[in-house]
Specification:
alpha+beta, 15 helices, 52% helix
Length: 407
């Protein structure tokens, strides 16, 4: 056993009711609380970003192809998903699926209520995976190539406002290109809820053939082509490659570009968690410095005695650093256990809830990334350990004659 380890074990092996024991408990508690806050902050931010991103991407698709024009209205400029465009999309190995859609603004009128909405028309090629997991009542609309379907999917928000239930009829009014009002009667096949209030309060899912008829489009015309990509593919890289391969009459945009308000808000969360981590590290580091200073001051006479016996400053520093590092590890272990336990319970039960209309999620999301947790622990340990070297410099100023004389 090293001399520094032996002396450290003997010197700090006795529990005494003094100032240093209180400082030790406060330091361990401070480091533990800091670890808990940092672990929960990282897990919540990752959960928020991934949870909300998945919702928005599932609803709007990662990439959308549209006509290249200066049209700023809700009425889309039609184009065809022809063989040239299909070949361009099929040649990209990162593209998993693509589907033609169209949007048309309308008004739903019931006996008691009126609500402006957007009818999103989809075809038989539409990937219903996202909405299949969001159905709360009823079923998905049945859409075929043989006839125009009158079944629609409405959100729980709209159903509540308009007092609609599965099986109810609703009448939707549109304005065609000749500025004539045209009505269509639909039947509610199902009710969905995504938690994305901005979408839920205005989007109705129906047959794209209805929009083609209303706009006098051809059978292959569409307003947009939604592009779904592989899970591990980078949206920006796929979109950049696709953008330059598209015909000159078309353009592509990512979901981040079409929904900047949501993704800018998510980006701000990174800044918040960095600030939290920095503050927690500073708090735990300052507490650790205070603790080791108290240990040194309380054992000044012991330091003088060790120096009188021939111990150099480096050996004495190691004695106190060993004790401080053990306390740091103890606090980190407690913090990890409590923090990870809280994250696990929250991920399973969701007992900490949120207003979905504000945060898009009904409960605080938790996603633990082992790599981030390891990096957080390593960074915390290295930072606090380095800060401990600062107060140990006081040891070199201890005069053995004076410290022993006044013991």
């Amino acid at each position: 056993m090293k001399v520094s380890n032996f002396i450290s074990n003997r010197l700090f092996s006795f529990s005494r009711d003094n100032v240093s024991s209180t400082a030790v408990r406060l330091t361990v508690a401070s480091i533990a609380i800091s670890m808990i806050v940092m672990i929960i902050s990282v897990a919540v931010v990752i959960g928020f970003k991934n949870g909300i991103s998945e919702k928005v991407i599932g609803f709007a698709a990662p990439i959308q192809i549209s006509a290249l024009d200066l049209n700023q209205s809700a009425e889309e400029t039609p184009f065809q998903l022809d063989s040239a465009l299909a070949k361009c999309l099929d040649n990209d190995v990162n593209i998993a699926h693509y589907q033609a859609v169209a949007n048309k603004a309308g008004i739903i009128k019931t006996d008691e209520e009126i609500q402006g909405v957007m009818l999103k028309g989809v075809g038989t090629d539409y990937d219903w995976t996202y909405f299949s997991n969001s159905i709360v009542e009823g079923r998905l609309p049945i859409i075929t190539d043989t006839a125009r379907s009158t079944e629609v999917l409405v959100s729980k928000v709209l159903a509540g406002k308009l007092k609609l239930a599965v099986g109810d009829d609703l009448r939707m009014w549109f304005v065609d290109k000749d500025m004539q009002t045209r009505g269509r009667k639909f039947t509610v096949a199902g009710i969905y809820q995504t938690g994305l209030y901005e979408y839920d309060e205005r989007i109705v899912i129906g047959d794209i053939a209805q929009i083609r008829k209303l706009n006098s489009w051809g059978d292959n015309d569409c307003g947009k082509v939604e592009v779904l990509i592989d899970k591990n593919a980078d949206i920006q890289q796929v979109n950049e490659k696709l953008y330059y391969n598209l015909p000159v009459t078309l353009t592509s945009t990512t979901v981040m570009e079409s929904n900047p308000q949501i993704f800018d808000w998510l980006a701000l969360l990174d800044t918040n968690v960095v600030l939290i981590i920095v503050l927690m590290l500073l708090v735990s580091g300052i507490t650790a410095i205070s603790m080791i200073l108290i240990l040194i001051l309380e054992r000044t006479s012991t330091i003088g005695l060790l120096k009188a016996m021939g111990a150099d400053n480096r050996l004495i520093r190691r004695i106190f650093l060993r004790r401080a590092i053990l306390l740091v590890v103890e606090g980190m272990v407690i913090g990890n256990v409590v923090g990870l336990l809280f994250c696990y319970v929250q991920s399973v039960t969701g007992f900490v809830t949120l207003p979905a209309e504000t945060y898009y999620l009904s409960a605080v999301p938790i996603e633990l990334n082992p790599l981030y947790i390891v990096m957080l622990n390593v960074a915390t340990f290295v930072f606090i350990t380095l800060t401990l070297f600062i107060p140990t410099m006081v040891i070199s100023r201890v005069n053995p004659v004076k410290s022993i004389r006044f013991e």
